[in-house]
Amino acid sequence: MRIAILEDDPSQTELLSHWFKCAGHHPHPFDQGTRLLRALEHESFDVVLLDWNVPEMSGIEVLRHLRQRLQSAVPVMFSTARMREEDVVRALREGADGYVTKPVRRHELLARLESLALRRRDPQPRTGVIELDVFRVDLETRTILRNGAPLQLTAKDFDLATLLLRNVGRLLSRGHLRETVWVSNQPVSSRTLDTHVSRVRSKLRLVPEHGWRLVAVYGYGYRLDRLDRSGVSPRGEQPGTSKTPVP
Prior knowledge:
The protein has helices at 10-22, 33-40, 59-69, 85-94, 106-120, 155-165, 174-181, 190-204, and strands at residues 2-6, 26-30, 47-50, 76-80, 98-101, 129-132, 135-138, 143-146, 149-150, 171-173, 212-217, 221-226.
């Protein structure tokens, strides 16, 4: 998972980051709510972990901004010392998906965050096989079949295609794609990313004629849409009407 952390206590930030890295996740810490919100304008995360009492902009204000102004549906969990019932109720009513009180327990926190993130993904990943429309993705053998025929994919193309198919309809930032697919600290150029996206689009036939559309959103990243029979996405967009460039 790609986890955004809002926490102004350096020792707590270091501890949480260590836990998440050991569990194979990618922590992105922020010590101010305004910095987190700026990041969310051009980056996507699987889940956001908020402390309530942080300088300048409280966690509850960040949550309200996320839900009302940015219209973001990213899963949000509070990790805070505030344990009054009215605080829990307020956070949930403002759109939080979970609430834990400090001191947090490592394995419980990880389990709760992973559960929240899984709700946004394809409901079948725990089985090792994802079946979606004409595609069958086998996570163990790392193969993708289209209408029963295996596709010839490189390792990175498989990872990228699987990430997109598990997040249909969700806008993923370039940073999210790079970090999840390439994983290493080595920089990956935009040209390399665009080349892989173009190849995945071609090999999986993710085009309107086949009921799919993989679009680039300028200055942000990519989104894979599944179209209905009339060629309209769930957002009501017609193929070719998007103002964003498609490489």
